[in-house]
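RECORD CONTENTS
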Amino acid sequence: MWAVIWSNLSENSPLVNWYSLHVPEGGSYSKSELVNLMASFRGQDTPNRTDTNAASSLIGTLTKSPIGDILNQGFESKRGNEKIYSKGAPPQETPPDLAILYTIYRYAARNERKRLIASELITNKEVTPHWAFCLDYNAIRAALVRLASKYPDLVHVEFSGNLDNINLSESETAIDIVKRYITDTIH
């Protein structure tokens, strides 16, 4: 469920949205570097107290929940005497497939269409499994193939030749995915 929470935070929290979409994956950042990135994003040369408080809040979310290390969003380590947070380091766990599908359904709802192309989940700088969970095309594609096999009523995919089509159920919504996720977790 943490992956669903992170997906929602990535979409609805300005701070987490900035982190998901504008802090490059594969990097390691100290608190002061995050503060400076935030100020730069706002077009300022000098950070202010709000930037510092926001970075503290973000770091607290990453380190006091499974989001940081298990979901691959800010694994804490040391660089000399300084704490750093690595975004996109190999995750301990891949987000659950239904959480990935939930994020795709949310993306589809924002874009008001249920027919998607898998590559757009990488190229469009919006909250998608790529931007929210640092998943590459192959990881997203593999999850979609598993999902289409297990949940043909929720998603159908066509991956052959140059096709990378995703067809989501016209009758299902993101909340239906969460309900299925909860039902499957209980059983």
About this structure: The first helix runs from residue 2 to 12. The radius of gyration is 17 Å. The chain has nine helices and six strands.
